[in-house]
Design brief:
The protein has 174 residues and is mainly alpha-helical. The chain has six helices and no strands.
């Protein structure tokens, strides 16, 4: 398993380096080598500035959550994405700069956090994911269901409850 992971990582790093080289050559042919190097230096400097600003903000949010004794879910993800984004912006390459900018900007960071959490959760084994809980609230009176399962008014029957995946002997009932 570890050998397969190493091979995949080498492949991804190699393809990324090749893509960065191709983009560098294309940009250099378009605007010149000097301007391309200057643009790469400018994006690295912008990366340092954004990393300092967004990293400081993410750490402040983490400290506030810790002081109020709340779980740091979103804030911890923001701090991680800010660190990865800053690293991608500081390293040379336009593709990495674009991805790093997406990680550093607050408007796109939330989208990336949601996508990454879905990808990670989809890859976890079922026993690691934890119980599935679905909560509901009743907002009004529901007429009794007829024999076909409908309420007679054309609206579906609403059932309240909790969906729990796994044994329920150790969980309190409501």
């Amino acid at each position: 398993m570890a050998d397969l992971l190493r091979r995949r990582l080498r492949l991804v790093v190699g393809l990324t380096a090749l893509a960065e080289l191709v983009v560098f050559v294309l940009v250099a042919a378009w605007i010149g080598v000097g301007w391309t190097v200057l643009a790469m230096l400018a994006t690295s400097a912008l990366g340092w500035i954004l990393l300092a600003r967004q990293g400081r903000r993410a750490l402040t949010d983490l400290r506030a959550r810790a002081a109020s004794r709340q779980a740091p879910g979103k804030e911890l993800g923001d701090a991680g994405l800010a660190a990865v984004g800053g690293l991608l912006m500081v390293l040379p390459g336009f593709i990495g700069d674009l991805l790093g900018l997406l990680c550093l900007l607050p408007g796109t960071r939330g989208l990336l956090r949601r996508v990454l959490s879905r990808v990670v959760l989809a890859r976890l084994p079922d026993h690691v994911r934890g119980p599935v809980r679905v909560g509901s609230t009743r907002s009004g009176h529901v007429p009794p269901a007829g024999p076909s399962g409908s309420t007679g008014t054309g609206e579906p029957l609403v059932l309240e409850g909790e969906v729990v995946d796994g044994p329920t002997t150790d969980r309190p009932r409501n």
